[in-house]
Amino acid sequence: MMHSEKTTENFMNYKTSVLRFPKDVATAAALIRLGECVALKTETVYGLAADATNEDAIGRVFEAKGRPADNPLIVHIESVDDMSHWAKDIPDIAYTLADVFWPGPLSLLLKKQHWVSDKVTGGHDTIVLRVPASENFMSLIRATKKGLAAPSANKYKFISPTCAEHVLRSLDGRIAAVVDGGQSDVGIESTILDITTPIPTIVRPGPIDDLMIEQALSEPVKYADNLGVTVPGSAKQHYQPNTPVQLLSTEALSKMQLRADEGVISHTADSVNVKSKNCNVLRLPKDPAKYSAHFYSSLYQLDMQNLRCIYLEETPSDNLWLAINNRIGRVVAR
């Protein structure tokens, strides 16, 4: 299946192919080897994969997304055995963490090897590495025998995609192909842990929290005081739909008379006083992990309705909700 050709800014003018997993992995791998970008599923969100050793391919990633050049990319590798190829001065705890959490949604920030392109690392002397749990993505790594740089497969600061349809809404005509592998399971991006510091520091909250990491290491872990540090997903305004989003308390939502052109994402049954059958009200699970799995897809669903506004019900402030609250804060930032 081919999508209609679109004229986009600069040199991009693709007919974005929709491939299928697993039958089209060889086709996707061939595109990667040619220096193209291919979107496909990870367990977290859909990533925009490119050969991390090919500077032209990395340039296409930044061009397709409209991403600033100083914003580093995560490199996805096949196994812990590949870590020393990309990183140097690796502390022992890296191997402990890899043994517990890889493959999975934990990304490790390490000192980069001298040969790694500054285009991949945004000009920094560090590199972020991860072994993904998605068989879709691992199949492509094995087929290409490459480390694959893969930010989320969407335009910069737009909602992260959790299915192929989301990717096409943002990047159709801007990339060579998307591999449709169904819905991503986790629904938000990986945790990024800086282990170049004396105390391991979470610089991007995600599915793996501080308590899980502390249990694995038997030593303290902290969250970065300045979450504006330049790592993937650190922009103040991020993950945003085209529709304006406003955060409201449960009490405020319960008192509102919603208009037909307004939408709501809530997690408590009594938060919305719905008197109009035309209202777009989506209720997500109260469990933070299940809420996260559906959060971006809910934003996509409401963003396609040409609404005036989307209201987000405030979520609990405890540690279990820290990662999703990090995303919500960036969604509503102005």
TrEMBL record:
<dbReference type="Pfam" id="PF03481">
    <property type="entry name" value="Sua5_C"/>
</dbReference>
<dbReference type="InterPro" id="IPR050156">
    <property type="entry name" value="TC-AMP_synthase_SUA5"/>
</dbReference>
<keyword id="KW-0067">ATP-binding</keyword>
<dbReference type="InterPro" id="IPR006070">
    <property type="entry name" value="Sua5-like_dom"/>
</dbReference>
<dbReference type="InterPro" id="IPR005145">
    <property type="entry name" value="Sua5_C"/>
</dbReference>
<dbReference type="InterPro" id="IPR038385">
    <property type="entry name" value="Sua5/YwlC_C"/>
</dbReference>
<keyword id="KW-0808">Transferase</keyword>
<comment type="similarity">
    <text>Belongs to the SUA5 family.</text>
</comment>
<feature type="domain" description="YrdC-like">
    <location>
        <begin position="22"/>
        <end position="208"/>
    </location>
</feature>
<dbReference type="InterPro" id="IPR017945">
    <property type="entry name" value="DHBP_synth_RibB-like_a/b_dom"/>
</dbReference>
<keyword id="KW-0963">Cytoplasm</keyword>
<protein>
    <recommendedName>
        <fullName>Threonylcarbamoyl-AMP synthase</fullName>
        <ecNumber>2.7.7.87</ecNumber>
    </recommendedName>
</protein>
<keyword id="KW-0548">Nucleotidyltransferase</keyword>
<dbReference type="InterPro" id="IPR010923">
    <property type="entry name" value="T(6)A37_SUA5"/>
</dbReference>
<comment type="function">
    <text>Required for the formation of a threonylcarbamoyl group on adenosine at position 37 (t(6)A37) in tRNAs that read codons beginning with adenine.</text>
</comment>
<keyword id="KW-0819">tRNA processing</keyword>
<dbReference type="Pfam" id="PF01300">
    <property type="entry name" value="Sua5_yciO_yrdC"/>
</dbReference>
<keyword id="KW-0547">Nucleotide-binding</keyword>
